[in-house]
Amino acid sequence: MKIGFDNKKYIKLQTEKIMERISKFDSKLYMEFGGKLFDDLHASRVLPGFEPDVKIQILKKLKDKAEIIIVISANDIEKHKVRADYSITYDFEVLRQMDNLRAEGLTVSAVVITLFNGQPSAQKFATKLERRGEKVYFHHYTKGYPNDVKTIVSDEGYGANPYIETTKPLVVITAPGPGSGKLATCLSQLYHEYKRGVKAGYAKFETFPIWSLDLKHPVNIAYEAATADLKDINMIDSFHLKAYGEVAVNYNRDLECFPVVSNIITKITGDSKLYQSPTDMGVNMAGFAIKNDKIVRRAAEFEVIRRYQKALVDFKLGQGSLETAQRIELLMSELKISPADREIVPKTARMAKDFSVPVVGLQLENGTCVFGKNKDHISAASACVLNALKTIAKIDDKIELIPENILLPVCEVKRDRLKVRNGQLSLKDTLLALAISSSVNPLAKCAINGLDNLKGCEAHSSCILASEDDQTLKQLGVYITCDPKFSSKNLYQN
Q1: Which CATH architecture has domain 7-211+251-289?
Q2: What burial letters (b/e) apply to 334-364, b meaning 16+ CB within 10 Å?
Q3: Which residues, including other chains, have CB under 8 Å from residue 206's CB and lie 6 or more apart?
Q4: HSE-CB for 277 with a 13 A CA cutoff
Q5: Which CATH class is domain 348-482?
Q6: Alpha-carbon distance 171 to 192, whole Å?
Q7: Alpha-carbon distance 73 to 278, whole Å?
């Protein structure tokens, strides 16, 4: 993978910026963390060199000074809202985050369930946490929000929420996804701190859009593509321009709510000049760690294309709207790009036409394209990865890495015992079978050693993949997309 982003420089700059912001207040800063703490895969795709867990690396630098509060909306629990990249519900994502954060030596002090109005699923989730010894707080709808600032900043508004006990200078407020109530939780705590005589502060840490890049920089356009379903639009921060004469980029929701947020913070703190713009509130330094703009631009353009292709698949599956795909299509036209710019897409289409079966194609880092077609015993994704591993390890294509005495019994168990219709091995099954084979076959072991080389490779499927194959490819770091076509007439595709 060609590197366009200096991760070490970013950690240094970002850590210094956060410490600087803490020092401006009474050693108490509530920092809203936008995006994902773990597995920030979007950022790693558009900023090659950006490590998906870099936010955790930054927090570990500050772990003696930081604790974390995880916020989740009661409505999202009730609706069983799903994190799309891992296909797990938001409540399970909270549990996953808590385990992962603590495994890194970080302090998770509480879970806050926001917008609580007696939702049974939210109450059940709270009970589950409390019985494991976790602190859980309920925040209700804020009375008077958004216009009645006098009521909001009173005991009837933020004061009606319980105060969350914290002990460290930096309190990170994070969530499993957008709309969880991070901002409201920060401001509620700010109100309580000032009532207690603590002059605490608020800051926002959000990677995108990158305020220091041009409005139409592909990285910022890629953010629009990623949030096309939310109808986010990047804009020039007019408040920042007026206050400082400096051009900065933000997005519509932050700009729209800034007057309200600013009024609330002014009412709480008594300081009308604390923040002059939404950009002032942020601490993001990502733009200053880009070391090769050309590489980053191309990576971001490819991400826009992938988002477009995903949107078409989501529409086909009934999980998204055609409008979302159309909005991304407009962004592609702005950048003068198309799906064909990803070389693997048209090549996979041609191979699928030649074979008349589902095909998965993958382009290795050296530009070599390999393909795999759907077979009786293994999926197209499995065949493609095996062929890629053979190419990387320079193993003759005619050599079978998984012998029939391993392959067939697994297929039989899936078909006859587990009642999987065709007994075909998924990519995950195939890799496990390859691992078993490696105990007696040195070539299979050599092939497995090539798995790391798949990270960052572009791949495409001629039809919608089974979710297990799709997920496994993503776990390998492969940038996979699909044509919006079903592999069969079966209604149950998995």
Answers
A1: Roll (3.10)
A2: ebebebebbebbebbbebbeeeeebbbbbbb
A3: 32, 33, 34, 35, 282, 284
A4: 22
A5: alpha beta
A6: 14
A7: 24
Residue spans per domain, the chain? 7-211+251-289, 348-482
The CA dihedral of 174, 178, 180, 181, to the nearest 10 degrees, is 80
One digit per residue, the tens of pLDDT, for the chain of length 494 reads 799 999 999 999 999 999 999 999 988 999 999 888 888 899 999 999 999 999 999 999 999 999 999 999 999 999 999 887 677 899 999 999 999 999 999 999 999 999 999 999 999 999 999 999 999 999 999 999 988 999 999 999 999 999 999 999 999 999 998 889 999 999 999 999 999 999 999 999 999 999 999 999 999 999 999 999 989 999 999 999 999 999 999 999 999 999 999 999 999 999 988 999 999 999 999 999 999 999 999 999 999 999 999 999 999 999 999 999 999 999 999 999 999 999 999 999 999 999 999 999 999 999 999 999 999 899 999 999 999 999 999 999 999 999 988 899 889 898 888 888 778 899 999 999 999 999 999 999 999 999 999 999 999 999 999 999 999 999 999 999 999 999 877 766 55
Do residues 111 and 181 make contact, with C-beta atoms less than 8 angstroms apart?
A: no
Instruction: Give the list of residues 6+ apart from residue 65 with CB closer than 8 angstroms, or none.
Output: 22, 168, 169, 170
Q: Are 209 and 220 in contact (CB under 8 A)?
A: yes
Residues facing 234 on adjacent strands: 251
- Contacting residues for 358 by C-beta, under 8 A, at least 6 apart: 352, 373, 374, 380, 461, 462, 463, 487
